[in-house]
Amino acid sequence: MAYYRRIRDMREDHDLTQRQLAAILHMPQPQYNRYEQGLRDIPTVTLVQLADLYKTSTDYLLNRTDDPTPPKAL
Predict the structure, then answer these.
(1) Which residues contact 67 (CB under 8 A, 6 or more apart)?
(2) CA–CA separation, 8 vs 28, rounded Å?
């Protein structure tokens, strides 16, 4: 599964529309849609915002692990 599929699934799991999530991230909905479609790479800042919002790790969002547990702070 590509990472863009995972960010879509996470949004849907949190009962958010693309419009709502784009507003949270302070961006236009079409821009966020391009991330979910895999048409644009997600900037690091946005990826970190998503991980914080969903209380997970960036590795989980990037599909590098199947463990959604956020990392422990150092």
Answers:
(1) 57, 60
(2) 16
Residue 4 exposure: Cα atoms within 13 Å on the Cβ side: 13
Angle at 17 between CA 15 and CA 18, to 5 degrees: 140
* pTM of this prediction exceeds 0.85: yes
Residue-wise pLDDT tens digits, 8-45: 999 999 999 999 999 999 999 999 999 999 999 999 99
Question: What is the C-alpha to C-alpha distance for residues 11 and 6, in angstroms, rounded to an integer?
Answer: 9
Q: How far apart are CA 45 and CA 50, in angstroms?
A: 9
Q: Does domain 3-61 have CATH number 3.40.50.300?
A: no
29 Cβ partners below 8 Å, 6+ apart? 18, 19, 22
